[in-house]
Amino acid sequence: MSELIIRDLRATVENKEILKGVNLTVRGGEIHALMGPNGAGKTTLGSVLIGHPSYQVTGGQILLDGKDITYATPEERARAGLFLAFQNPISIPGVKISTFLRTAFKQLHPEDKTGVNEFFDNVKKHLKKVGLDESFLSRAVNDGFSGGERKRFEILQMIILRPKIVVLDEIDSGLDVDALKLVADEIREYYSQDVGFLIITHYQRILKNIEPEFVHVLIDGRIVKDGDKELSLKIEEEGYDWLRSVA
Ligand SMILES: Nc1ncnc2c1ncn2[C@@H]1O[C@H](COP(=O)(O)OP(=O)(O)O)[C@@H](O)[C@H]1O
Ligand SMILES: [Mg+2]
């Protein structure tokens, strides 16, 4: 069973302290929602988890299955089983999506013997499920994608690359109601394989489709409240102001 432990994590962006001691544990088979107002540091946490170079860790630890990945490269983190869909994924012009998926899969699962045909049959099955056309495979990674295409592609990557712990930052942004349902169905299907999820979101919207067991509220770089689904419903009705006094 996988386990991501975030322990007293502190981080700065351009010398400004954004994360001020975040503690959070996500295990395989659990869905956690991280909520919080704009500017709370949610995307910063996601970026620090993937090892984005613009963010400096100044204290604390990130452990994945007991391995300290606090200062690991993004590739090392991915190999350890962590997956992050970026709020604004970078484009890799010139690299076809089909090539990218096959190469990344082989790097992450060198022991897997799935042949090329079987691999792409599975890719095509899930392309359809997330509502993307087969011609998508010939396009370059994130090159000129619409917001919705990016989000669908993130979910496709998750399914194909088979990470153990998944962090999704604002996965619902840019998706209409129908697309959100497709994406939520895929997330639920993948979750059934004992995968741990950290769903970062400003709004309750996605949480209607994917019910979290655990809800955490981040304000000003600290988790100020932990709860369950009821907490996210209360936030939908009352906003975040009632939580600011404890921040
Ligand atoms: N690359 C960056 N450069 C400068 N400031 C940043 C950068 N990324 C985030 N910040 C600042 O960090 C704070 C938290 O931002 P962010 O993590 O994006 O919050 P959230 O995702 O909760 O809205 C904000 O004050 C934002 O201006
Ligand atoms: Mg954000």
From TrEMBL:
Signal sequence range: none
Pfam families per UniProt: ABC_tran (PF00005)
Organism domain of life: Archaea
Gene3D superfamilies assigned: P-loop containing nucleotide triphosphate hydrolases (3.40.50.300)
Keywords: ATP-binding, Nucleotide-binding
Alphabetical list of InterPro entries matching this protein: AAA+_ATPase, ABC_transporter-like_ATP-bd, ABC_transporter-like_CS, FeS-cluster_ATPase_SufC, P-loop_NTPase
GO molecular function: ATP binding; ATP hydrolysis activity
Domain ABC transporter: 4-245
Protein name: ABC transporter ATP-binding protein
Species whose genome carries this gene: Thermogymnomonas acidicola
